[in-house]
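We close this part of the discussion by returning to an individual protein. Part of our work consisted of pairing the sequence of a single chain with a tokenised description of its backbone. What the numbers capture is local backbone geometry rather than side-chain detail. The amino acid sequence and the backbone structure tokens for this protein are reproduced below.
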Amino acid sequence: MKLFRYSLFQWSLLGCLAILAACSAPAEKSAPSPDTNIVTIIGVIHGQHRRSEAYSLEVLRAAIVRFAPDIVMIELPPERFARASANFERFGEVRESRADDFPELTDVVFPLRQQLGFELVPVAAWTQKIADARRGELTQLKQDPSRTKDWAAHQAAIATYNRAVSGRSDDPLFIHSKAYDEAVKARQDVYQLMFGDDLGPGGWQNINAAHYQKIAVALDGVKDQGKRVLILYGAWHKYWFLEQLETRDDIHLTNAAELFED
């Protein structure tokens, strides 16, 4: 009789544990509706693509083709995009100074647009005026003896970042990982803390907010259209954009690392 009562107790305990486990388990996300836009961010490494085997322009091209975007948002200001696009249509080359620094655009995205037929949307807020002002202010800050400790903190953050990404700075799987984003965020948080207020529109927080505003407006413009939207941007900006995109309930955000897996 004691054995029977003990068995009932065991079964009751197991039942309670099962209920608690079910309650604590994270709910699975439901599949997006056909009208929900699928959004992903590919972080690029600009000129390093030409020197990297792991993350070459061919690897990037294959990832974009695999995603099969309807829309690609790119790191060019609207006025420079208009010039680059007109040049490509006329000459088969981009021939735009800012875009020329971004081989992911000149060698991959513009040619792929003809093949895949996606729409290109410029979503960069940089202007030459902002860039020149930022450069001049940083030069003055570096020469200011009262900011020596700030520069030391910035350099220490850079060193920590370099150790975190050493040997993996061109690994697309690492670049699209939480560890990479955390390393970049830690570095750039110090940069923002030390110099953000001094740099005005060119400060890290301000310029990312301005970039993202263009992204948000573009996403609002295609809401509930079931588009596949690729945001192609310098990899350091990726974590900042992801933090904002994760607050939206009108998109289905996917991890671009899947595009680089075998």
In short: The chain has one domain: 35-262. The chain is about 60% helix and 10% strand.
